[in-house]
Design goal:
The chain has about 100 residues and is α/β, with parallel strands linked by helices. It has helices at about 10-20, 60-65, 80-95, and strands at about 25-35, 45-50, 65-70.
Length: about 100
């Protein structure tokens, strides 16, 4: 998909400034956030995922339009970032495909 969607490398402040300027909402994956099934994303959005060890930078978390999570059943308490990202992207775009 890297050849199908825009990918940009930048610093946090420039990223947040750009999102604000073009009015793109920022969704951040966070345990305990709003269940992704309760969120309907517009056609353009940004999604930030962190790793279990370090997580999301506080500046990104505080700038988020919504903190989102993937609800889990049973004893599982986390997903790896690739799996969580895939599920969140599917859920956020489920009306767009």
């Amino acid at each position: 998909m890297i050849f199908q969607i825009p990918v940009v490398r930048t610093d946090t402040q420039k990223f947040l400034s750009h999102l604000s300027h073009v009015q793109i909402p920022l969704y951040v994956a966070e345990t305990g956030g709003l269940d992704m099934t309760e969120c309907t994303a517009p056609s353009s959005f940004a999604l930030v995922l962190g790793n279990e060890g370090v997580g999301i930078r506080p500046t990104l978390r505080s700038a988020a339009t919504n903190l989102l999570s993937v609800s889990m059943r049973g004893e599982a308490d986390s997903l790896n970032v690739a799996m969580a990202g895939s599920i969140l992207l599917y859920g956020l775009t489920r009306g767009e495909i």
